[in-house]
Each structure stands twice: as C-alpha cells, then as structure tokens.
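Section 3.1: Structural characterization of target chains.
Under the original work plan, the team committed to producing a structural model for every single-chain target entering the pipeline before any wet-lab resources were allocated. The record below documents one such target. The sequence was received from the expression subgroup and is listed exactly as submitted; it comprises 377 residues.
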Amino acid sequence: MLHELEKSEFHRALPLFQGYLQDPMMHAVIEGRLRGRVFVDDAEDPGAAFVWTGTECAYLTGGEENSKFKQALHQLILEDIIPAAQSGGRDYLSLFSFPESYAAKLESLFSAQLPLRTPLSTFSFDQELFFARHGGPRDRLGGTLTLKRIGTKELANPRNAHLAGEIAAYWGTTGSFLDEGAGYCVLDGESLVSWCYVQAYGQQAQTIDIWTASSHRRRGLGTLVAAAVIDSSLADGYSPFWICDKANIGSRRLAERLGFEYTGDILLVDIPFQPYDFYLGLAEHFFLPQGEYRQAAESYERAFSIRDGEAEDYYNAAVGWASAGEEDRALEYIKKATENGWKDMERIESETAFAVLRGRKEWEHLIELGDQDRWRL
C-alpha cells in the first residue's frame, strides 16, 4: 500500500501538498537538496504522500480515510522511520499532516507511543519591515563579542561539535554547508555563544535554526545572528520562513522583531521515542521556563502515567499546578514530593507559587508534618 519513490520521481508527491503549509524543509527533500525519502500510495497516480526529511520532521497528506494506507504508514514509521531517526540522534518525530483534521486520527493511530498534539504558529515575512529594523551595520558589538560568518574554523573546533553535527545532519556534510549554505555566529573571545544557520533551502525559501548560550541571552544576539542570515539569504534570492510552537513566546517575539507577522496556527503531532523522558524534558526545559504552567503540569502528569517520578519532579509539578490556579492538584503533588524524599521545607514555605495555598488546612498540615521531620533531624 506504500511505494517508495526514486529521487527522480519525488516531484510526483508535490501536487498533493498544494494549498497547505509550504515548508522549505519538505521542498528541499523533493528538490533533492536534503537527504530524505518519499512514499506514496500509488506510484502512477498518487493520492497520498509521506515525506521524511531524514531528521525529526515528516509531512503527510491524503489517505485520511484509507485504513490500509494508515496501517501501512503506521508500520513504516514504527519499523523503519523511527529506528533511523533514533540512530541519527533524534528523540521524536514531528508529523505535519494535511488537512488539519488528520492530526486527531494520527494521535489515535499512534496512541501506544503517547503522541503530543500541539499547535504551531505560522508567519509571513515583511521584507520592508525587516530592512527598516535591521538595515544598518551589525558588526559593532563591542567588548569581547564579534559577529562572523560560520566557517571551517568554527565547525572544526571540538567545542562546537553539537553545531557541526546538526549541520551535517541536514546538509550531509559540513563541507556541503560551507559550499552552499549560510550561517552566522557571535564569539565571546574564542567561545561560540550564539549562532544561526540555514537548515535547508527549498522552493526559493529557507528555514533556519537559532541558539544562544544561557549566559548571553537577553542581549539581542539571537536577533543579530538571525538578521545576518536572513540578509544573506535574501541577497541570494531566498525568502525566510518561520514557524514555532505556539507556546514558545520567545520565538514568537523574535519572529516579530525580524519582520515576520503572525498568520495563524496549525496542528502538529509529535511521536516521542522515549515518552517518559520526552514529557519530563518538555515540562522542565520548555513549558516551565516559558511560563506555560498548566501545560508543564500536564506534561509532568503524562510522564508520571508512564512511571513514578523523583521528588524534585513532583515538586515542580506542584509549582505548575499552583501557578495554573489548581490548588488541590498542587497540594497533591507537594504531598507526593514529601512522600518521595523531599526534605527542603524552607523552599516549600518560601515558594512564591504556593502563596495561593497558605491558609488552607491541608497546607498547614503539610507544613506541620515537615516541621516534625525537621525536629527529628
């Protein structure tokens, strides 16, 4: 029910995606610029297509009501795509599916893998606005900071192995990227503290990845390197493309500073390879720092539905629920934290998020039990 196309036939799948999100990453695969694979339901007259980029992204359209196609897709993803993605160091597979109603069916199809259905924000680019905001010189950082194009020296530095590995995952080799791609970085002395590079070119557009070290955030470096890459790509004839998780407020604000305008949301289905670690990491490293407390708490709960957590995890879940206004759930998780070895009652008593709990009998009881434990110590 699924046929893998030869690279010379990838274009057969393209008409099926017309009218939907035109991600340069998908087009890069179809154009042969990015390593990837393309599958269709019928090689001669395709009505459904699945495009995998060789990394964490895949695109699906058609076959929504075809049970045989979906069964074949399920088998392909579990037995072929996921193992290949894992061997490439990926932790999950992001499925862009069209039409949007497809997302709910995929969530059901892969229910055993505990998928996450989440909204993505899409944007359009205003070139005039970009140049109005970023048309001046960009190399005047001052101090020990310097802006430069990513080159052989940066990618050969062992301290930048993660960046070199990510670039190689998309471009095949760092050499191909240096020949055809574009990227800029900020160095603090000899240390790379911020970077942006083109992941792929497709349909005369580009998609980028951005990172800034935690020690150098809130200083405009992400905006600086992204603007440099966008400027370079525009000069080469490529339009910038931007999508991000709706909950990623930092990315949304960065997009707006770069001249992008919000156009709406679409649904994405993430299939985690290790669901416990995926949901725990999502809560701790994404939702909590973003201030998305309910989503953080719900992610912790999904992780705990797989196996028990540690005391610190239960404490953080309590912070999430308290910040979301769910007092009973917060008290429940404070209790779980103490039952699983949490001893720092001073931190509990001083936690700003728990102010809503003070005065409740359950809160006073928990504090009293904690005081008794401290007395015993």
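DSSP finds 15 helices and 13 strands in the chain.
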